[in-house]
Amino acid sequence: MLKTLYLHQANVIRITRKSLVCAAMLGLSSTVFLTGCATGQNDTLHDTTHNAIHEPLHASAGHNEFSSDIVNVVYSTTDLHDAVVQANTLDAQSTLVVFDIDDTLLTATEFFGSDKWYDWQRGRALNESGAVIPTSDAEKVNCLFDTLGMVFEIATNKPSQPNMANLVHSVNNDVVILTARSGAYRAATMRELARNDLDFTDKSLTSPDVGLHYDVTLNGRTATVSYVDGVFMVQGMDKGVLLLDLLERTGREYSSVVFVDDKQHNIDNMADALKSAGINFYGYHYTRIFKTVTPEEVAQANAARIALGELLNTHFEDRAEHINHRQCDY
Ligand SMILES: [Mg+2]
């Protein structure tokens, strides 16, 4: 019988965050909780060492207790090292490691155009009290994805944690970079990966000179996705379903997947997809990058939106007219 186990790494040191994560997990239909969440027995843990993390978790995870032949576990962590350690305990040939990009390997250096700016534009960002920040229509950009593309070209990304690149380089497994970004942003995305010492060309599941571009329709929505140089861009589609599809297209089979992502719904989708495929799943919900939006960031975003609009209106009149009339290209 398959179960999804949600575990907490010992280096999740913020009790309030941990409690929120546990509360969120309660809404998941396929979730089986460990007592660590239910009782808060690990609330006092402040252990940031890595070697000790997996021992108590796997013991308490109770693969025996749940009689599960297929592993389906999710950890909450603030350190990519945890996922790398997990991967290294598994068979290198039959284990695939999958990393998200935004707020997982890389994070924006400015609020405008960042992952949480996108959430704020969509009206789902949270303030420091955990309340949703209302975003007025005047604060929203016209053509969100056009704007995002322009900002990706302008902005830089930095590592999500100082040793990020070294940790990624230490992975011996096959690796897939799986981002919700659209392939329309590939040039800027590859540029920032390279700037941060990340190159997955030699990790590609295809021949190095082969890339995949194809349309996928899920739940009535069609997206053009692309897999090139080890970087899979799925334009907001279900990451779990799309990963299985990619493995089928590339003729790859793995018995286990280690997946790191900052978004809970991506973790959930991957857990569901791999469970259905009978693949062991080791999910890492990466919570190192703070998602709360401050009033200062809102002010910065509003100033940047106005300045960008002025630049377009003054020097790129045709594009400005398109965007001002919501004739969006992306
Ligand atoms: Mg992300």
Written account of the structure:
The protein is of the alpha/beta class and 330 residues long. The longest helix has 21 residues. It folds into 2 domains: 233 residues, HAD superfamily/HAD-like (Rossmann fold, 3-Layer(aba) Sandwich), CATH 3.40.50; 77 residues, no CATH class. The structure holds magnesium ion. Magnesium ion binds next to loops. The site of magnesium ion (MG) has 8 residues, from loops.
Compact overview of the structure:
It is built from 13 helices and twelve strands.
User: Main beta sheet, described?
Assistant: 10 strands, mixed
Low-confidence stretches: 1-5, 7-67
Average of per-residue pLDDT values? 83
- Strand element count: 12
How are strands sequenced across the largest beta sheet?
2-1-3-12-11-4-7-10-9-8
Number of domains: 2
Q: Under CATH, the topology of the largest domain is which?
A: Rossmann fold
What is the topology?
Layout: E1 4-8, H1 15-25, E2 31-33, H2 35-39, H3 54-61, H4 63-66, E3 72-77, H5 80-89, E4 95-99, E5 106-108, H6 115-121, H7 144-154, E6 157-159, H8 164-169, E7 174-179, H9 186-195, E8 212-218, E9 221-228, E10 231-233, H10 239-250, E11 256-261, H11 264-277, E12 280-286, H12 295-315, H13 317-324
Parallel strand pairs: 1-2, 1-3, 3-12, 4-7, 4-11, 7-10, 11-12
Antiparallel strand pairs: 5-6, 8-9, 9-10
Helix pairs in contact: 10-11, 12-13
The structure holds magnesium ion.
Question: Key features?
Answer:
330 residues, alpha/beta, Rossmann fold, two-stranded antiparallel sheet, 12 strands, globular, disordered N terminus, binds magnesium ion
